[in-house]
Amino acid sequence: MEGGLAMIISLLNGMEVQIPGIFNVEGVAAILFYFTMYAFIGWLLENSYNFITKGTFFKANFLWGPFKPMYGIAPLLLVFLISPSTHWAVVVLLCFFIPTLVEYASGALLQKLFNRQWWDYSDAPMQLHGHICLPFSLCWVFLSMICLKWVHPAMVTMYGVIEPFWTWIGAAAGLYFLADFVLAIRKHATEDFVTEESTNPIQ
């Protein structure tokens, strides 16, 4: 137990997180960059896991493009809530609860709006409504700490390099996400309507 605790503290020592401002154009541009990158990394992560476990790389996605918004939102929340002065125990708790809450809210909202689950943990131990489960929440802890310790600093460096060009690229990315969300909502709403019609005995 003490060895694991020492490992966590060692992992978090020296963690530096850039917290972009959100009340100016530069801050919004930075947030959009980080969201885009993490949403894409999340898409790669989920599809790679699907390939390892099921032999198929492409997994059903809410959006048309290769992005998972849930993975874009959770790291941003962690970056805003955690600073270099945050106690390691608080960091661990946030790395557990923030991704878990984002995952549950995403799953519950999608099920409510479209009557469909894009993931289902019903067969996993200590699960809640199939949206979250303890084993994956523990995975989120380690992935989040790795993200904060190594991935996000690399993202900050990358953004510093492309920032002069991101003003134009970011505008296009914002329009792309807006169009993708609208098209995805139309697609899944239509699928849900067709499914209800096809299963309605009164025809």
UniProtKB/TrEMBL annotation:
Spans through the membrane: 21-41, 62-82, 88-110, 131-153, 165-185
Domain of life: Bacteria
Record's keyword terms, sorted: Membrane, Transmembrane, Transmembrane helix
Name the UniProt record assigns to this protein: ABC transporter permease
Source organism of the structure: Neobacillus rhizosphaerae
Species classification: Bacteria, Bacillati, Bacillota, Bacilli, Bacillales
